Amino acid sequence: MDERIIKSQKCINEGAAFLAGIEPRFERALKVTGELPLRLKPEGFERLLGAIVSQQVSVAAANAIWKRLVKANLNGPRKIMKASDNELRAVGMSRQKVRYARALAEARINFKSLRSLSTTEVVNRLTQVSGIGIWTAEIYTMFSLGRADVFAAGDLALQESGRLLFGLKERPTEKEIRQMAESWSPWRAVAARLLWAYYAHAKNREGVG
């Protein structure tokens, strides 16, 4: 696996400079967003369990459930396997999320071994687990493994930001924005950070939280 790994702010800045050099609209976006965030996260079981917890609930609700999981010591694979459904439901997990959490624990993923796989192989491995979709797998690959050339095309904020920045009449579909992002290689993960930052700027400018 010889893909570029983002390890520091210097990598982000290098990617941003590359993008500004190939696309004038990215250059303009950077002038309003300023320096892009590193946003690297820890790798491992807890990151994916947290992604499952966050599905289809507000950030506040997800944070509350996660705090209860940690307090009950139910944030590791062995604890998940030993816990009863009632114990997991008691901290706020839905029946579906209980199934997903158990599927993740049963998958026994060797998270360190993912580092040596290609991005495509990582996404394929993670999406074999019930409850882990392409978006979650790509987000994990981008932020926990630091891959520089992955793009979470299913993200609605990225799609909407693409519409705004590129002056499109309609929000691009997942397939359309994934095709757009091909020309941003090998720094598609930095392009995603830029589009998220631009989206936040646009919404704040409109007075939306």
Account of the 3D structure:
The chain folds into two domains: about 90 residues, Endonuclease Iii, domain 2; about 100 residues, Orthogonal Bundle (Endonuclease III, domain 1), CATH 1.10.340.30. Helices cover about 60% and strands about 0% of the residues. The protein contains twelve helices and no strands. Helix 1 crosses helix 2, helix 3 packs antiparallel against helix 7 and helix 10 packs across helix 12. The chain is globular, with a radius of gyration of 18 Å.
List the helices and strands and how they pair.
Layout: H1 9-22, H2 24-33, H3 45-54, H4 59-71, H5 77-82, H6 85-90, H7 95-107, H8 119-126, H9 134-143, H10 156-166, H11 174-181, H12 188-205
Helix pairs in contact: 1-2, 2-12, 3-7, 8-9, 10-12
- What is the CATH H-level superfamily of the largest domain? Hypothetical protein, domain 2
| Rg computed from alpha carbons, rounded to a whole number of angstroms | 18 Å
Describe the global form: globular
**Major sheet:** none
The appropriate CATH architecture of the largest domain is Orthogonal Bundle
User: How far is the first residue's CA from the last residue's CA?
Assistant: 40 Å
Structural class: mainly alpha
Order of helices and strands: HHHHHHHHHHHH
Strand fraction equals: under 5%
Q: Which CATH first-tier class of the largest domain would you pick?
A: Mainly Alpha
CATH topology of the largest domain: Endonuclease III, domain 1
In DSSP terms (H or I, runs of 4 or more residues), the helix count works out at: 12
* Total beta strands: 0
